[in-house]
Amino acid sequence: MNIVGLSKRFFSDRRSLNGINNALVKAVFSGRKPIFGFSGRSFHELRKTGNFVIPRVFSVSRNLSTNASSSSKQPAFLRWYLRKLESHPFMTKSITTSLIYMAADLTSQMITMPPSGSFDLIRTARMASFGLIFLGPSQHLWFSYLSKILPKRDVLTTFKKIMMGQVLFGPVSNTVFYSYNAALQGENSEEILARLKRDLLPTLKNGLMYWPVCDFVTFKYVPVHLQPLMNSSCAYIWTIYLTYMANQTKADS
């Protein structure tokens, strides 16, 4: 049936929506012969809007075009980064955390540096390696684990995730951070334990005033695959303080 015949059938039918419906059904499914992969038996594959029958493929193509137009509005770097998160999530999050720790340590040095001082690049390398080797991978595993055991995003579930972070992830990650940094500076086990006794508890207390707010926003509103990035972004400010604490003089053993 050509376009002219279809339009005549439409205008001759007083029930316009049913007219479109009947015309499309007869034109596409007449004789139950397959046309473009469809047949009369596959009528259930169509989506109905009111009395008007719309092939599912039209709806899918419309959604794809909408997603394509929205993604094209994103900056090129953001599109590239999101693709890397999908293809190589573990490595991408590790490198991102490493770069954030590097920037935070350089900022911390700028704040505390005397006028005639210079950057301690070995210290910055220690901070960057911690983000790459430990914190980036551990954040990826931690947030993925929480999303599996606590998949909901209501307020109660969000507070459960915050509590688990303060009780489990925070103390472990800070203990590893201080121990790792002290060991790379040549401190022995007794000196590392003395540093932990001096610095760990004040760090956890200060973290209680900072991290619950960041965690609430992260768990409540940020998609799971972007939560490590959000957490590392919040960690930029926190790490300025943390690297300062980690590079103080040795504690008395």
From TrEMBL:
<keyword id="KW-1133">Transmembrane helix</keyword>
<keyword id="KW-0472">Membrane</keyword>
<comment type="similarity">
    <text>Belongs to the peroxisomal membrane protein PXMP2/4 family.</text>
</comment>
<protein>
    <submittedName>
        <fullName>Mpv17/PMP22</fullName>
    </submittedName>
</protein>
<dbReference type="InterPro" id="IPR007248">
    <property type="entry name" value="Mpv17_PMP22"/>
</dbReference>
<dbReference type="GO" id="GO:0005737">
    <property type="term" value="C:cytoplasm"/>
</dbReference>
<dbReference type="Pfam" id="PF04117">
    <property type="entry name" value="Mpv17_PMP22"/>
</dbReference>
<dbReference type="GO" id="GO:0016020">
    <property type="term" value="C:membrane"/>
</dbReference>
<keyword id="KW-0812">Transmembrane</keyword>
